[in-house]
């Protein structure tokens, strides 16, 4: 791990001593710089869960990744900088109040004076770490997030800021996990016809005032509460938009 190269990749400069402010800044910079994407799955390239593979793909080749890669990589950086970080297994909320199997998502716990939930690999989610020991709503841009306890699990939910219905995001255990424990589910995400990652290509990244999202069929730009969407004509246009807005060249 070359921490200096990683920090340059996310455009971070300044203090790195472990504290909440540094954690917030690292988290936000990561989301602004490194996209959530599933492109390797549709390129037929196996996704390998190892620190070396993460570093080569995300830092050396300026790619993004999905949860295991993004949070796995960020955990390594945080550990290198002196943070106490643990990988956690999460089950993602589905329709009908159900949740996906264990290890379906990786999230992170960072222990400072207080415990913090850290997640740079869930796509359109919170932009700053959230205090795990706070039960009330925690604001984040146009949304609020909260934690509740449920049958031995911790449930993360969100709603539009100020009102609306709380929507479950995922539930997780505080038991620390090892990277290799996520390998079987990662393999399923890549190969199963039931995996939503196999339904189509996706690349999305936080922007300073919204979000950029590219799929096989559309390009979506959100700025605050304004959203614009236009169709993607063909693979050639997809490739151009991917390079222009996300800095990714699959060739």
Short description:
The chain is an alpha+beta fold and 251 residues long. 28% of the residues lie in helices and 29% in strands. Helix 4 (51-60) crosses helix 5.
List the helices and strands and how they pair.
Elements: H1 3-9, H2 20-33, E1 36-37, H3 39-43, H4 51-60, H5 67-80, E2 84-92, E3 105-111, E4 115-118, E5 130-131, E6 138-140, E7 143-150, E8 153-160, E9 167-172, H6 183-191, E10 202-207, E11 210-215, E12 218-223, E13 226-231, H7 235-246
Helix pairs in contact: 4-5
Word description of this protein:
- This protein has 7 helices and 13 strands.
- A hairpin with a 2-residue loop joins strand 11 (210-215) and strand 12.
- By secondary structure, the protein is α+β, with helices and mostly antiparallel strands.
- The strands form 2 sheets. An 8-stranded antiparallel beta sheet has the order 5-4-3-2-9-8-7-6, covered by helices on one side.
